[in-house]
Design brief:
The structure holds two protein chains of two kinds. By secondary structure, chain A is of the alpha+beta class. Chain A is built from four helices and five strands. Chain A folds into two domains: 85 residues, Alpha-Beta Plaits (2-Layer Sandwich), CATH 3.30.70.3270; 37 residues. Chain B has a single domain, classed as Cytochrome-c3 Hydrogenase, chain B (Orthogonal Bundle), CATH 1.10.645. Chain B is globular and about 70 Å long. Classes of the chains: A alpha+beta, B alpha+beta.
Chain lengths: 150, 362
């Protein structure tokens, strides 16, 4: 038993640099897995399937198929990563930096970008091809149905 | 006979990390009786089971308490795995125990710091929390969260920790052990610390057994209630497990039990990290819990035995989820330990049961 059990540790503390950081003036080193905030980085390839919104335990994600938007309430998000794991197109990413302070609890909405004329043409061609395929299949089915009767 | 006075203690008090109210009936400076009252942080989380499906609810259980966060997600996941008969991959079992024991290290270091703060040793408090920061860095590196990890879900763990990182964790724990060695003497041998803790808040073995006290509070009164002895989950892979006991029954014994458990947890982590098998970490659950099925599970949280119960109803949502937490058991012991103590010792005794009121009220 005795006193001054911490003398060594305390003396060391006097001559070493502080154990704490002056956050946010000094930005801490984030790790690769640090759960900071969720971002939809590739809205172009997002197919608006809504799986992220269904998996989200807090309901902070809203996917609007009609308006082609994806939106998040950054202050409702708990960064559990469920949406990132659920995304089939890998367009949701867990960023390392934490949500920035804000003066109001605004939702962040991302809209699917407008298509360029070439992309529009390609899409139209693909749809026409699909319609032709469907028509052909329907015709074939009708023919098959008609055959046994004859 | 001296005049009796009632002194209110809490819910806001410098020594209390969470709100609990005690009506202390005092005669002069001696506490005759303590009447506890809780209900300041009730959030109705068990009711939320009707709104969140069983894979989402794990994120709710994690938020029951900030310090035993991983333990709650682990206990809940194990209960649902029992309910649905899901086999957990061995690697996931190892990782779960490693993360759970790391949370025990961080919880005990946090508590030792708070204990030091309660008996007025500010320097020791800061040293404990400085060491704890290393454990929090391990958490952030491996799972992304510092306190709420979101690493466990039904069927396994959501993240794998590669062998290289596990070696790094063991190396960091060696540093933790070295730094911890340097400050532990202040808890065990310092004259002023001992004079504040020795013989204070005594609870006998018989009283601890009668009141069903759990965790380090019970082990300090020589009652072995350590659920880890049952070797459930990843604990089955340990070579041997001996709970840390003491027969002191006073505040000092509780400090010693928790102080030694930090070493024990570090040893467990190193043993499991050395022999962790390769393989997947998740066996994703399929289907829904069948109607009428029930399962229960016990888990040794940093504060003691925690009991989980779940009942399925054939849908993605559970019929009932019940959690009985260690502090709800230990409050009974606190009232007994407080009777007859000095008013100045009340903060110490309240803190040495490591009260977690958020867990208790949910």
């Amino acid at each position: 038993m005795g006193t001054f059990k911490l003398a060594g540790t305390s003396m060391k503390g006097l001559f070493s640099k502080p154990a704490t950081k002056m956050y946010p003036v000094v930005v801490p080193e984030y790790f690769e897995r640090t759960a900071g905030h969720i971002e939809n980085v590739d809205m172009k390839s997002c197919i608006l399937c809504g799986l992220c919104a269904r998996k989200c335990p807090t309901g902070c994600l809203v996917v609007d198929k009609g308006a082609e938007t994806w939106s998040i309430d950054p202050f409702g998000c708990i960064t559990c990563g469920s949406c990132v794991r659920a995304c089939p197109k890998d367009c949701l990413v867990m960023q390392r930096t934490h949500t920035e302070p804000a003066t109001d609890k605004r939702r962040i909405t991302v809209k699917k970008p407008e298509l360029t004329p070439e992309e529009k043409a390609a899409k139209a061609a693909a749809e026409a091809e699909k319609a032709a395929r469907i028509a052909a299949a329907k015709a074939a089915a009708a023919k098959k149905k008609a055959e046994p009767a004859s | 006979m001296a005049k009796q006075t009632i002194i209110p203690f809490g819910p806001q008090h410098p020594v209390l990390p969470e709100p609990v109210h005690l009506d202390l009936v005092v005669e002069d400076e001696t506490v005759v009786q303590a009447i506890p009252r809780i209900g300041f942080v009730h959030r109705g989380l068990e009711k939320l089971v009707e709104k969140k499906d069983y894979t989402q609810f794990v994120f709710v259980t994690e938020r029951i308490c900030g310090i035993c966060s991983f333990g709650h997600s682990l206990g809940y996941s194990q209960t649902i795995e029992h309910l649905m008969g899901i086999e957990v991959p061995p690697r996931a079992e190892y990782l779960r125990v490693i993360l759970h024991e790391l949370s025990r290290v961080h919880s005990h270091l946090l508590w030792l710091g708070l204990g030091a703060d309660a008996f007025g040793f500010e320097n020791l408090f800061m040293q404990c929390w400085r060491i704890r920061e290393r454990v929090l860095d391990i958490f952030e590196k491996t799972t992304g969260g510092r306190v709420v990890l979101s690493a466990c879900n039904v069927g396994g763990t959501l993240y794998d920790i590669d062998d290289e990182t596990l070696k790094g964790i063991c190396a960091t724990l060696d540093v933790v052990r070295r730094e911890y060695d340097a400050i532990l003497g202040a808890f065990l041998n310092d004259y002023s610390v001992r004079s504040r803790l020795e013989g204070v808040g005594y609870l006998s073995q018989q009283q601890a057994r009668d009141l069903s006290i759990v965790g380090p509070f019970a082990r300090a009164s020589n009652v072995n209630n350590d659920v880890r002895c049952l070797r459930q989950g990843g604990y089955a892979y340990l070579e041997s497990f001996e709970p840390i006991m003491s027969d002191g029954g006073d505040c000092l014994a509780r400090v010693i039990v928790r102080a030694k458990e930090v070493y024990q947890s570090i040893d467990i982590i190193k043993e499991l990290a050395a022999k962790i098998p390769a393989g997947p970490v998740m066996n994703a659950p399929k289907g829904k819990p069948a109607a009428g099925t029930q399962a229960s599970m016990r888990l040794e949280q940093p504060r003691g035995e925690c009991y989980y119960y779940a009942k399925g109803n054939g849908s993605m949502f559970l019929e009932r989820m019940r959690i009985r937490t260690p502090t709800s058991q230990n409050l009974g012991g606190l009232v007994v330990a407080l009777a007859g103590c000095d008013l100045a010792d009340v903060p110490n005794i309240v803190l040495t049961i490591d009260p977690c009121i958020s867990c208790t009220e949910r």
